[in-house]
Write a structure and sequence with these properties.
heterodimer; A: 113 residues; mainly beta; 12 strands; 0% helix; B: 112 residues; 7-stranded mixed beta sheet; 11 strands; globular
């Protein structure tokens, strides 16, 4: 079985500041993918960033970057220069083996003007 | 435009009245899946399908049925809905091995 844990149910950050969302996971597979999805109030699930486990380099997408620590099974998301539009639920997810995608319970991020 | 389409987006029904939530994707994806989202619980997988005529249970399959007769369609069937199935439902699809799931816009279901 695979598990994903997000230990921060809610977080807040001032506009233009940097915030880091935590995620730990567990899987027995060697090949897997990790994702961060954003869910704004519109409820749409939007892919923010993905990381292949075999790649040592941390993924980056504009203001979003990850800190992937494979040995520690940790996958945190850093948002730089936070914007009001970043206010959303953020879900960490793991996909391994049989393609089942397992989600964490989410972190509600509020960006304060 | 590549997309996953769910219908209906909103539905209020009563206990025991059978309903179907349709899901269709136009990306020729082999893999399709249904999730339900509840506050504090994140997204939990109901059923998934690796290809046509191949389906399997996820983490919370009780009270649901699915079928995969065509590659593009993966309907979710609630034979006898109960109030504990009130939830937000998402359909998703991906190509084999690609990793990323593409999600529909969600279906808000209320069972009275």
């Amino acid at each position: 079985a695979q598990t994903v844990t997000q230990s921060q149910p809610e977080m807040s950050v001032q506009e233009a500041e940097t915030v880091t969302l935590s995620c730990t996971y567990d899987t027995s597979e060697n090949n897997y993918y990790l994702f961060w999805y954003k869910q704004p109030p519109s409820r749409q699930m939007i892919l923010v960033i993905r990381q292949e486990a075999y790649k040592q380099q941390n993924a980056t997408e504009n203001r979003f970057s990850v800190n992937f620590q494979k040995a520690a099974k940790s996958f945190s998301l850093k948002i730089s220069d936070s914007q009001l539009g970043d206010t959303a639920m953020y879900f960490c997810a793991l996909r391994a083996g049989s393609y089942q995608l397992t989600f964490g319970k989410g972190t509600k991020l509020s960006v304060i003007p | 435009e590549a997309q996953v389409t769910q219908n209906p987006r909103y539905l209020i029904t009563v206990t025991g009245k059978k309903l179907t939530v349709t899901c269709s994707q136009n990306m020729n994806h082999e893999y399709m899946s249904w999730y339900r989202q509840d506050p504090g619980l994140g997204l939990r997988q109901i059923y998934y399908s690796m290809n046509v005529e191949v389906t399997d249970k996820g983490d919370v399959p009780e009270g649901y049925k699915v079928s995969r007769k065509e590659k593009r369609n993966f309907p979710l069937i609630l034979e006898s809905p109960s109030p504990n199935q009130t939830s937000l439902y998402f359909c998703a699809s991906s190509s084999q091995g690609a990793g990323e799931l593409f999600f529909g816009e969600g279906s808000r279901l209320t069972v009275l």
